[in-house]
Each structure stands twice: as structure tokens, then as C-alpha cells.
Amino acid sequence: MSFTPPPPPVFTGENYHIWVVKMKTYLQAQDLWNVVENDAEPPPLRANPTIAQIRIMARNSPKQAWEKLKEEFMGSDKTKQQQLINLRKDFENLKMKESETIKQYSDRIMATVNSIRLLGEDFSESRVVEKVITTFPEKFE
Q1: Tens of pLDDT along 16-63?
Q2: CA R_g for the chain
Q3: pTM reported for the whole predicted model
Q4: Which of 37, 41, 60, 118 could form a disulfide with 17 if both were Cys (CB 3.0 to 4.6 A apart)?
Q5: Helix locations, 4-124, DSSP H
Q6: What is the DSSP letter of 38?
Q7: Where does the DUF4219 domain start and stop, copy by copy (predicted)?
Q8: How far apart are CA 31 and CA 12, in angstroms?
């Protein structure tokens, strides 16, 4: 019985923040993250489409390809700042809907919080808990 590793996550141009976490995990599992992070020399090509795809891109190294994707899909510092402003505003305006379950509401909160964290901002668990508790509808009091 042989083990076939899963294929690398495919980036379609959408949901960069999710893809980047999956791809980093994939590359770490394949012992290739050092190639990207430290611009190390990649191992000789074998039947590994991930490295081949990275080399095909118009970059000289996997690290440069990774940085280009990061720049293009995460945006500039100015873009990230604007995204953070919008996400903070979204977080502050979140309220539980009458038709929503606690699980659905907490999922909505965590989606926003995770987006904020992916942009590099610290966001405490106590702030999340406070948001949940203070925005429940009256029927939960």
C-alpha cells in the first residue's frame, strides 16, 4: 500500500487568504517551505508539480514568486490598511440576527476576526468574547 500525497491547493485568484494558509501548510509538509521563506536552492526537480509551477512563473526563485503572489493578492500596505479599517468597522457593526443561531453568529464573527488576523493585526480573544456577549438579542438575557 503506497501513500500518495494530496495535490497542492489550487489558487483560482479568489480567497487568497485561505489559499496562502493551505499552500504554506502544504509546502511545510513537503519540506519545501525553506525554499520559499529563505530563498534556498530548491531540490532537484522530480515529479513535483508544485516546484515546477513555481519555476514556470516569471520569477527567478520560489521566494520571488511567493512574494509576487502576496503583493498582488494581499495588496499594498495602503490597501491592507483600508481592508483593516473596513473589517474593524464590520466587526463593530456585527449584531446577531433574530433568525440566526448562536453558531451561525459566532461563525460570522470569527470569519471577520480571522480576516483581520490574516492581515497581521492582533485581535484578542477577550474582545471576541465581549462582542458575542454584548450583542446577543434580548431573548438570551
Answers
A1: 878 888 888 888 888 888 888 887 776 665 555 565 455 545 567 777
A2: 20
A3: 0.53
A4: 118
A5: 16-29, 33-37, 49-56, 62-74, 77-93, 102-118
A6: S
A7: 11-37
A8: 24
